[in-house]
Amino acid sequence: MHITKNKQFTQIKPEQDSVKDFFTDFMNRYSEFKNEHLLLDFSEKINTKIQDLFLFLDISTTHKENGTSFVIICQGIDIDDIPDEINVTPTFTEAVDILEMDAIERDLGF
Q1: What is the DSSP string of 7-41?
Q2: Under CATH, domain 2-108 is a member of which superfamily?
Q3: What is the pTM of this model?
Q4: How far apart are CA 81 and CA 55, in angstroms?
Q5: What's the CA gap between 76 and 24, in Å, rounded?
Q6: How many CB atoms lie within 10 A of CB 13?
Q7: Which residues touch 66 (CB under 8 Å, ≥6 apart)?
Q8: Collapsing DSSP states into helix, strand and coil, what is residue 46?
Q9: What is the secondary structure of 48-102 as a DSSP string?
Q10: Residue ranges per domain, the chain?
Q11: Is 2 helix (H, G, I), strand (E, B) or coil?
């Protein structure tokens, strides 16, 4: 996994061949970035399926409860098929926009 950190968020890109392998590695290292705003970038990953993204449902919910953002960047996924608890966007720019909207909602007390 390739990790890039800046002041606003941590971007993580998988280097594994499967989302399930990435998920295992991600969970083993989760304590390193559990309190950070996370962008999981699957934009270069081919054949990511909706079922693969469901692996991250609990983490997404936990992040929101802890006041941090969790966004998955993934192209070719019908957003209407994804539960509201998981933020999925097709581009990096939209993912950053989600982070900004989450910050505004937290500031307003939502």
Answers
A1: SS-EEEE--SSSHHHHHHHHHHHGGGTTTS-EEEE
A2: STAS domain (3.30.750.24)
A3: 0.90
A4: 15
A5: 23
A6: 17
A7: 34, 35
A8: coil
A9: --HHHHGGGHHHHHHHHHTT--EEEE-TT--GGGS-TTSEEESSHHHHHHHHHHH
A10: 2-108
A11: strand
pLDDT in tens, the chain (110 residues): 899 999 999 999 999 888 899 999 999 999 998 899 999 999 887 778 888 899 999 999 998 888 899 999 998 888 888 888 899 999 999 999 999 998 888 888 77
Residue type, 16: Q
Print burial letters for 48-61: b (CB count within 10 Å at least 16), e (below 16): beeebbeebeebbe
Tokens of 59: 């983490």
Residue 56 structure tokens: 């991250």
Which tokens belong to 25?
Answer: 């590695």
